[in-house]
């Protein structure tokens, strides 16, 4: 079975947010981001932004952006969360392997 669902048009997302009494810029600021940061989610994948928008719309991000969550056959695409920077080894702690 081939996935025929299309992503929402960016104007539909903006309209849905306005119907909820907010704007993309306001939601971005409420989330602790710069006012234009969430706009990136409309044109390219960004899981954190997708969840912020979808949560405000009381939906799952996969309903808004099915192409980002399902392959051409309708199979779920596992999206991994990146490791927080705090858990990464700092440059000061880095020790190269013995040669």
TrEMBL record:
Q: Name one Pfam family in it.
A: HTH_35
Q: Where is the Ner winged helix-turn-helix DNA-binding domain?
A: 7-80
Q: Which GO terms describe its molecular function?
A: DNA binding
Q: Which residues cross the membrane?
A: none
Keywords assigned by UniProt, alphabetized: DNA-binding, Transcription, Transcription regulation
Family recorded in the similarity comment: Belongs to the ner transcriptional regulatory family.
Name the chain's protein.
Answer: Sugar fermentation stimulation protein B (Ner-like protein)
Q: Which gene does this sequence derive from?
A: sfsB
């Amino acid at each position: 079975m081939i996935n025929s669902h299309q992503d929402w048009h960016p104007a539909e997302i903006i309209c849905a947010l306005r119907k909820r009494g907010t704007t993309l810029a306001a939601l971005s600021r409420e989330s602790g981001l710069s006012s234009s940061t969430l706009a990136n989610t409309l044109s390219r994948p960004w899981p954190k932004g997708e969840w912020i928008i979808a949560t405000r719309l009381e939906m799952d991000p996969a309903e808004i952006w099915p192409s980002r969550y399902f392959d051409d056959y309708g199979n779920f695409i596992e999206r991994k969360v990146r490791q927080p920077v705090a858990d990464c080894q700092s440059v000061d702690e880095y020790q190269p392997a013995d040669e």
